[in-house]
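RECORD CONTENTS
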Amino acid sequence: MIREAALEDLAEMARIHALCFAKAWDEAALGDMLKSPGIVGLIAPGGFVLARVAADEAEVLTIAVDPAARRRGTGRALLAEAVSAVQAKGARTMFLEVACANSAARALYGLLGFHNVGRRKSYYEGGEDALILKADLPLAAVGHGR
């Protein structure tokens, strides 16, 4: 069950983020994000996504799925709901960054229609580069026909 994230979810979101990222966001940072204009925050058992809409563009700020809950479609479902939510706010394109070594996420994003449009050098902790991916909305692969 995916629903809108609330301030009461911050502890769980911070817990999941810490499992997924070396430089995790704490409750205060996540709370500041949720309160920001244009933010879409969605949570499901074992995962959450935060996206931001500005004009006709959206960006996935973070998507995190507890390692124990992976490979069950949670990330895909969260992204599908986020796409619907940002489209409702007027977004026509979506961007995200993904670690070059994160082959599972890169494969999912590729299946959903995201393509590489750039690279951020040493973006992640430890100096790993990030790929900048972009997709036109709607994403046909998440059930929104083109």
User: Anything to note?
Assistant: The helical segments are 10-20, 27-35, 74-88, 103-111. The chain has a mean pLDDT of 92. Residues 3-142 form a domain with the Aminopeptidase fold (CATH 3.40.630.30).
